[in-house]
Amino acid sequence: MAVGAKNTAIEYHSRINQTLDYIEKNLEKQFTLDELASIAAFSKYHFHRIFMGVINETPFQFITRLRLERAATMLVMNPQLQIGDVFVACGFSDISIFSRNFKQHFGQSPSQWRKEMIQKSNLSQVKSNPKKIQQELSVYFCSHTKSLKWMTNMELNKSIEVKNMPSMTVAYVRHIGPYKGDEELFRGLWHKMMTWAGAKGLLAQPNFQSLAVYHDDPNITDDMKLRTSICITIPEDAKVDGEIGKMVVEGGSYVVARFEVEAHEFAEAWNWMYASWFPKSGYQPDDKPCFELYSEEPKDNKFIVDICVPVKPL
Question: Residue 252 pairs with which residues in a beta bridge?
Answer without folding.
Answer: 165
